[in-house]
Amino acid sequence: MILPIVAYGDPVLKRRGEEIEQDHEGLQELIDNMFETMREAQGVGLAAPQIGQSIRLFIVDASPFGEDDEDPEAQKVSDFKEVFINAEIIENFGEPWVFQEGCLSIPTIREDVTREDKIKIRYYDREWNLKEAEFDGYAARIIQHEYDHIEGILFTDHLKPLKKRFLKKKLNEISKGNVDVNYRMKFPAQKVRR
Ligand code: NI
């Protein structure tokens, strides 16, 4: 089932997600629905707060990056698909790296964000195996962005104050639903709109 994606301005996006219990009701179905929702919106990552649930869950499917066969870094993540439950980033390390980010909750806005290019993370996968792993490049970037969502942080929070002030009007319009978007969204000032 495709779920509406919550738009910028909804307080759920600013809330830190709650830890999930292994017997969380409907967890597997929720994960399936999130993958379906993300694919339909052509995203590479989606976090539970973006579908209105304040829990520590996000999913990543970087395979769309792999379609760029000119870029060896993109090829590296062409089969990277994972579910992250109760994730904790243990360390961000490596080199600062500027990359243009977007977010399904903030359609039409893309901005450069600087983050370190490597991470070490601990999480449960969807079969509830505890994993500890290092990621770099695009995989690290997507995880850092989605991890921010379960911490109540948006990529626009990383922008310099001047840049953010410049975007304020556009962000306001997005929260009101005055934006062209071809997937199902829920705007804070409205009901679900197709
Ligand atoms: Ni996002």
Number of strands: 8
Overall tally of structural domains:
1
User: What is the distance, rounded to the nearest whole angstrom, between the alpha carbons of the first and last residues?
Assistant: 14 Å
Largest sheet: 5 strands, antiparallel
What hetero molecules are bound to the protein chains?
A: nickel (II) ion
Work out the helix count.
4
Low-confidence stretches: none
Tell me the fraction of residues in β-strands, as a range: 25-35%
What is the overall pLDDT average? 95
In the sheet with the most strands, the strands line up as 2-3-4-5-6
Order of helices and strands: EHEEHEEEHHEE
The radius of gyration over CA amounts to: 16 Å
Q: Which overall shape is indicated by the principal axes computed on the Cα atoms?
A: globular
**Helix content, binned percent:** 10-25%
What is the assigned CATH homologous superfamily?
Answer: Peptide deformylase
The CATH topology is given as Peptide Deformylase
Name of the CATH architecture: Alpha-Beta Complex
Which class of secondary structure composition applies to the elements?
Answer: alpha+beta
CATH class descriptor name: Alpha Beta
List keywords for this structure.
alpha+beta, binds nickel (II) ion, three-stranded mixed beta sheet, five-stranded antiparallel beta sheet, 194 residues
Indicate the topology.
Blueprint: E1 5-6, H1 27-40, E2 45-47, E3 57-61, H2 72-76, E4 81-101, E5 111-124, E6 130-136, H3 137-150, H4 161-175, E7 185-186, E8 192-193
The chain binds nickel (II) ion (NI).
